[in-house]
Design a protein that fits this description.
With 505 residues, this protein is α/β, with parallel strands linked by helices. It folds into three domains: 6-50 and 152-319, 3-Layer(aba) Sandwich (Rossmann fold); 52-143, Rossmann fold, CATH 3.40.50; 327-502, Biosynthetic Threonine Deaminase, Domain 3 (Biosynthetic Threonine Deaminase, domain 3, 3-Layer(aba) Sandwich), CATH 3.40.1020.10. Helices cover 41% and strands 21% of the residues. The protein has 20 helices and 18 strands. The protein has helices at 6-11, 28-34, 52-61, 65-68, 79-91, 105-113, 125-139, 150-166, 182-194, 210-217, 240-249, 258-272, 282-294, 315-325, 342-350, 380-391, 404-413, 436-444, 476-486, 497-502, and strands at 24-26, 37-42, 72-75, 95-99, 117-120, 142-143, 173-177, 199-205, 252-256, 300-305, 329-337, 355-361, 367-375, 396-399, 423-431, 449-456, 462-470, 489-492. The chain is elongated. The mean pLDDT is 89.
């Protein structure tokens, strides 16, 4: 095909034998928060929970009997592989799916369930792609490219047809995730050829932005490394065909980081009660960033929810990063005097905000270094208010909210062993509520020095604290009597082998 009529290919795309039109849903929470009408195109609702079935099915439906006789093969981060496997199952033909070793297990298992033959190879999509091309020659299989193929692009373009038929509003912009470029090429082509006033805005992760860098360079470039958080778009090189279409039809590309993607996953969940995968949340992350940057209001904006194949074990990490991405948590490091009552003063300075975590280990007799997470309401001024209140106590404080090492590692490593004398270790539980931690510190009182403190709000009914208290042996009975009167459930852990191994010298 030299002169490809993509508009005709999209209009004639053969996808609806397996595909049903996905809804274009009004996002109530996002609309209220962003001041624009937000519509979510629910591509996560396909049987394989991804838009990829459209392109894969359209391509396989165009193949001749000769091309189908030995079966098909593809390379995939997971979602394209599911689409190829499902389309091949319908045709009753062999499907070999080459996936990187890093592919989420939920995607591998899904391909297996669709009778696809999974081959795990390489550390990323590009290595899997090379291996798939070798296997294609070896077994005489027909290769189904995940994005750089006119029929794949046309299949994804049917989303554009559906969007325009599903709303009477004037759509101002459509936000679309970019990996290799097949999805945005298909939608962008159809929209711009029929409604050129609608903006087509692509969204890529900051650590996997091959299309943005290619367009900036004027030719398809190859990234040395890509981040795998949004594995569905983690490609080092975009397609030649998709590059040309994106150059022609895309108005802008926005890049978003892990925290912004995680925040978007939470935003989508609050509107739909569905947990999308990181690549599936790219469009909402980009849309949110665009609105904040431009301060636009009262426009109709569409975001493509492109997939919902996320491993359950990634949810804890996503939740942790989402709070920072939404500016709902700030991380602080502070020096406070090593004296009774310092914790309480610090907590009072933070005010009636939830403390999400509080880490401290005795260092010396003068100052204590603490690491604290504070829940915010999402405005920039609140950051400054918290820091100002702490500095008024003459406590030095550093904002670590944007410190990657602190977010990934330091928050989990604060503490360590100490040679402090006369330390007793206790584990406490108390009903979780706003202000519960300050209530706990008030109850402990100022009579004894706190030498270790670890608290983390896990979102459960009870707050859990590990607390070291320095108490001379002759006053241990007084401490025991005091703790018994507090009304908190507690256990002494002074003889716990984990304490002896990692927290004492």
């Amino acid at each position: 095909m030299n002169q490809i009529n993509y508009l005709q290919l999209i209009n004639n795309a053969d996808v609806y034998s397996l595909v049903e039109k996905t809804p274009l849903e009004y996002a109530t929470c996002l609309t209220a928060r962003l001041g624009n009408k937000i519509l979510l195109k629910r591509e996560d609702l396909h049987p394989i929970h991804s838009f990829k079935i459209r392109g894969a099915l359209n391509k396989i439906n165009q193949l001749s009997e000769e091309e189908l006789k030995n079966g098909v093969i593809c390379s995939s981060a997971g979602n394209h592989g599911q689409g190829v496997a499902l389309a091949a199952q319908q045709k009753n033909i062999r499907a070999v799916i080459v996936m990187p070793l890093t592919a989420p297990s939920i995607k591998v298992e899904a391909v297996n369930s669709l009778e696809g033959e999974v081959v795990l190879y390489g550390d990323n999509y590009d290595e899997a792609y090379v291996h798939a091309k070798q296997l294609k020659k070896e077994f005489g299989l027909t290769f189904i490219h995940p994005y750089d193929d006119p029929y794949i692009i046309a299949g994804q373009g049917t989303i554009g047809i559906e969007i325009l038929s599903q709303t009477e509003d004037k759509v101002d912009a459509i936000f679309i995730p970019i990996g290799g470029g097949g999805l945005i090429s298909g939608i962008g082509c159809y929209i711009k050829e029929t409604n050129p006033d609608i903006k087509i805005i692509g969204v890529e992760p900051t650590n996997a932005c091959a299309m943005k860098k290619s367009i900036d360079a004027g030719y398809p470039i190859t990234l040395e490394h890509v981040g795998n958080f949004a594995d569905g778009v983690a490609v080092k090189q975009v397609g030649d065909e998709t590059f040309k279409l994106c150059e022609k039809y895309i108005d802008e590309i926005i890049t978003v980081n892990t925290d912004e993607i995680s925040a978007a996953i939470q935003e989508i969940y609050e509107d739909t009660r569905v947990v999308v995968e990181p690549s599936g949340a790219l469009a909402v992350a980009g849309l949110t960033k665009f609105v904040k940057t431009t301060d636009i209001r009262h426009q109709t904006l569409v975001a493509i929810n492109s997939g919902a194949n996320v491993n359950f074990d990634r949810l804890g990490y996503i939740t942790e990063r989402a709070a920072i991405g939404k500016q709902r948590e700030m991380l602080l490091a502070a020096n406070i005097p090593e004296e009774p009552g310092s914790f309480r003063k610090f907590c009072r300075a933070i005010g009636p905000r939830n403390i999400t975590e509080f880490n401290y280990r005795y260092n010396d007799d003068t100052h204590a270094k603490v690491f604290v997470g504070v829940e915010l309401q999402g405005n920039v001024q609140e950051h400054k208010d918290v820091i100002d209140a702490i500095e008024k106590l003459n406590y030095s404080v550093v904002d670590l909210s944007d410190n990657e090492m602190a977010k990934l590692h330091i928050r989990h490593m604060v503490g360590g062993s100490s040679s402090i004398k006369n330390e007793k270790l206790f584990r406490f539980e108390f009903p979780e509520k706003p202000g519960a931690l300050l209530d706990f510190l008030n109850a402990i009182g100022t009579k004894w020095n706190i030498s270790l403190f670890h608290y983390r709000n896990h979102g459960s009914d009870y707050g859990r604290v590990l607390c070291g208290i320095q108490v001379p042996s002759k006053k241990e009975s007084q401490l025991t009597e005091h703790l018994s009167k507090l009304g908190y459930t507690y256990w002494e852990e002074s003889n716990n082998p984990a304490y002896e191994m990692f927290l004492t010298r």
